[in-house]
Each structure stands twice: as structure tokens, then as C-alpha cells.
Amino acid sequence: MLYEIVIGLEVHAQLATESKIFAPDSAAFGALPNRHVSAITLGHPGTLPRLNRRAVEFALKMGLACGCEITRRTIFDRKNYFYPDLPKGYQISQDKAPICVGGEVWVTLRSGEEKALALHHIHLEEDAGKSIHATVDTAEDEPDTLLDYNRAGTPLIEIVTDPVMRSAEEAAACLTEVRKLVRYLGICDGNMEEGSLRCDANISVRPFGQEALGTKVEVKNMNSVRFLQKAIEYEAKRQVQVIESGGRIIQETRTFDATTGRTYGMREKETMNDYRYFPEPDLPPVVISDAWLTDIRNQLPALPRHLFQKFVRDYGLPVYDAGVLTESRETAAYF
What we know:
Blueprint: E1 3-14, H1 53-65, E2 69-70, E3 73-74, E4 77-80, E5 90-93, E6 100-101, E7 104-108, E8 114-126, E9 130-135, E10 143-148, E11 155-161, H2 168-185, E12 197-207, E13 217-222, H3 225-244, E14 252-257, E15 262-268, E16 278-279, E17 286-287, H4 290-299, H5 304-313, H6 319-325, H7 329-334
Parallel strand pairs: 13-14
Antiparallel strand pairs: 1-11, 1-12, 2-6, 3-17, 4-5, 4-16, 6-8, 7-8, 8-11, 9-10, 12-13, 14-15
């Protein structure tokens, strides 16, 4: 109780477009490995990306739903890193000019308290492929890594919060609300078990009353709300134990093992300079016109928080009933 947990989330939502963000390959889930690939996805020399307009519209919907400021002239950047599941050797992302800036996500805690959690930004990017670590049938029977590039190039939005959460409950409520929002908007199916919604948590601890943030640790790729809570609770205790025993927290990337309920170190965390961002030379700037933004705003459905308030205020429903009815857009619309 002498320490305060500080949490920020990075939520990756795969956008429900028919094709990838910069290539015409299918973005459908569930195909046999390496069926939805092309020369563009694989980064063959001479190929050029072309932006998927629908992906931009889906990002704008999320930004408007969260009350973000829309960047009216946005660009893409190259994020350079070298993993086997990144066929081009870089990821097309957004660094200096994310498409949505600021905003907030409203959550309701178990106590009934409503709280606005500040967002830093929302940006567009492409997903990487998938590495599958398996033992192949060879004479040596040694573990090997298999690569499936079907997912490479699938459009993502990354929703990045400010470090404003102070408990695992708040973080879980934030992820739950983001999943509900993307489903209401129809921009992502939110199926965490399939990887279409994934969450990274930046976690640090500091003595109560201290203004400066502690050294953060990033726990990667959690695919359920319950796992997110367990990872935060374990990691906070681990960091306090390290500090209390005279140790030092290092900035690193860790993974969460659901079978043990523990986090494990993977690698030291990269800094922004390590990625050597620079503007993507093969894509022009995206200019969001007033007419385009107005059209997207007019397409927005009634959002879960507004429906919840309407059901309680205008229809006189109990808070619990209103919460159940607004859990999904289909149930709220039927009611």
C-alpha cells in the first residue's frame, strides 16, 4: 500500500475491411497459412503501397466516438525493425501525425463511479505476420519457427491511453469499453481469442505522493480482459518486491504466461530512436475534408454510454438492466 500503480494501455484493433491496408489481398481471418499474400505484402522490390480508404474511415469513426481531435492532414511513417514476421523489414505506421489526437474513454467501475480515461492518440498502421513456434518432424526434433504472412498488412488502429489508470480494475474497464465501442461502430469484431483485438500494458510503480513516474515495463499481447488484470496485478507486485529488495527496474518488454499467472522478460525495451522513424516516401499525405468528416460523423450509431444514460434517465430502468441491454449494439437496438 506504500506504492501507486501507474498504467497506460496500447490497444490494437484489426479493422474489419475486406482487403489489407496497402494491398488488395484479402484480410479475412482463418485461411490456410500464406494464402492471403502478394508481392506487395511480401515487400518485393518495385512494389508500391496504396492506401485503403475504408481503413481511414474506420479510424475516423473511432476518433469521433472518443471525442478526439482529427488531424486534417496526416502522413504515414516507416517504423524500422527486424523480426521474421515483418516481411518488408519495416512497418508502415504513423509517428508525428497520428490521425486522431486526444479524446477519452468513459468507463464505469464496480463502485458505480464513472470515470473519463484520457487518450493520447489513435493511429493507423499495418499488422505484422504471425510467428508459430513449434517442434517440426525432423531427425533432430528441434523447435522451429514457422511464419504465416496472412495477417501481415491487415489494417490496425492503435488506441494509446495516457498513463492515467491506477488499478487493474480501471485497465480492465478501459479495455472492455474499447472492445464494446469498436463493435458498436462496426469497425472490428473485437474477438480477442482470434487476435483481432490485442492489448499491451505499460506498468510502473512509484511511492505514493511522488510526481515522477517510475520505470515502465511493457507486457505484450494479452488476449483477454482477465489476463490483463492478472498480468497487471502480478507485475505491480513483482516491481515492488524488486525495489524493496534494493534492486532496479529495467525498461523491458515482458510476456504474460496464463498458465502460471506470471510475467517473464523477453527483451530490453526499444526506444523511439531505435525504430529510426522517417516519412513513408511511397504514400502521399491524407487530407480529411470537411465534407468527408461530416459524412463519417453522420454514419455514427448511438453509442453505448449515451444509450445507457437514456435507458436509465428516460426509460427509468435500473442501472444493472441498462448495463445488460447496452452490452451489445444488437441487444440495445432490439430493446
